[in-house]
Design a protein that fits this description.
Blueprint: E1 2-6, H1 11-22, E2 26-31, E3 46-49, H2 55-59, E4 66-69, H3 76-81, H4 83-103, E5 108-114, H5 137-155, E6 159-165, E7 167-169, H6 185-194, E8 200-203, E9 215-216, E10 218-220, H7 221-231, E11 240-245, E12 251-252, H8 253-264, E13 270-273, H9 288-294, H10 302-314
Parallel strand pairs: 1-2, 1-4, 2-3, 4-5, 5-6, 6-11, 7-10, 8-13
Antiparallel strand pairs: 9-12
The structure holds uridine-5'-diphosphate (UDP).
Family: Belongs to the NAD(P)-dependent epimerase/dehydratase family.
Cofactor: NAD(+)
Protein name: UDP-glucose 4-epimerase
């Protein structure tokens, strides 16, 4: 397929681009490089540096078969203090992209959605029918885009898939996590083990979980990438398919700490810190629908995520 990857110079986009190329798809990237990196773009791939609102210029007359949409602001804490930035970039930007997709009759869309659309569910594992009650601006903007996509699919032949990621980690095919502002547990823990940070703050050790630290569902970025390729052909025209992507297993912060110490062979200094605002105790996905509709099952475990992230960190 001829694909346009919007936000393809970022962490997840750049891994997906590598898999698309390996599977024989043609790739053009549109990225404004606000958080992505031009050196994450593989040789031979056309990079159009531009805002998402200019997607129509790229799509016009070029016969694209699919758009994969990764372009978004994604820092939960920042989203709460800067809602206007998040609504403009994530929602108004996606509206412009959807209009361009409809105008230029691109038949397929795969969108990066998030577990943050569910907020703090009463029941785990979380299915796609779990009520969506986002607790922060980031989750609200992603949910708004999911709703726009549903509306678009009801009115046009667009075949769309929203993939709701749980906690993405690891590295693959030379691409990994390089955020200027890092808030994620595994890269922070690796930096603390490596001495690039003095310690890891554990946000809360009195959660109602077996060891008192919060539980999350980690999924390897290579598994996630495979789900995107499968999603290209999973929806019917006029359908908006929503699928959770997680392992279906939860790991606590302390379990991640042990895994990091084990993989690196280094002691990881930790300190107890207050709970982070908006953090739920436990988020674990049911990935049954992804299995049924995409034929997807995660293949990599937590140890492999940590090992691959560690190798990527040390290579930089
Ligand atoms: N966490 C932590 N210390 C950190 C970063 C994260 O204790 O420096 C915890 C966080 O409270 C959550 C889990 O690790 O329970 C995963 O957080 P992350 O930011 O990686 O992803 P999130 O679940 O917030 O999307």
């Amino acid at each position: 397929m001829k694909t346009l990857v919007v936000g393809g110079a970022g962490y997840i986009g750049s891994v997906v681009v590598r898999l698309l190329l390996a599977e024989g798809h043609a790739v053009t990237i549109l990225d404004d490089l606000s958080t992505g990196h031009s050196d994450s773009v593989p040789d031979g791939v056309e990079l159009v540096v531009g805002d998402i609102s200019t997607a129509g210029d790229v799509l016009r007359g070029n016969g694209f078969d699919a758009v994969l949409h990764f372009a978004a602001k994604s820092l939960v804490g920042e989203s709460v203090v800067r809602p206007s930035l998040y609504w403009h970039t994530n929602v108004i930007g996606s509206r412009a992209l959807l209009d361009a997709i409809t105008e230029h009759e691109v038949p397929r869309l795969v969108f990066s959605s998030t577990a943050a659309t569910y907020g703090e569910p009463d029941v785990v594992p979380i299915t796609e029918d779990t009520p969506t009650r986002p607790t922060n601006t980031y989750g609200a903007t992603k949910l708004a885009v999911d709703m726009m996509i549903s509306n678009e699919c009801a009115a046009t032949p667009l075949a769309a898939v929203s993939l709701r990621y749980f906690n993405v980690a690891g590295a693959a095919w030379g691409a990994g996590e390089r955020h200027t502002t890092e808030t994620h547990l595994i890269p922070i823990a690796l930096d603390a083990a490596d001495g690039r940070r003095d310690k890891l703050d554990i946000y809360g050790d009195d959660w109602p979980t077996p060891d008192g630290t919060a539980v999350r569902d980690y999924v390897h970025v290579a598994d996630l990438a495979r789900a995107h390729v499968l999603a290209l052909t999973a929806a019917d025209p006029g359908e908006h398919l929503i699928c959770n992507l997680g392992n279906g297993n939860g790991f606590s912060v302390r379990e991640v700490v042990s895994c990091v110490e084990d993989v690196t062979g280094l002691p990881l200094p930790v300190a107890a810190a207050p709970r982070r605002a908006g953090d739920p105790a436990r988020l674990v996905a049911s990935a049954d629908r992804a299995k049924a509709r995409l034929g997807w099952e995660p293949e990599h475990d937590l140890r492999r995520m940590v090992a691959d992230a560690w190798e990527f960190t040390r290579s930089r």
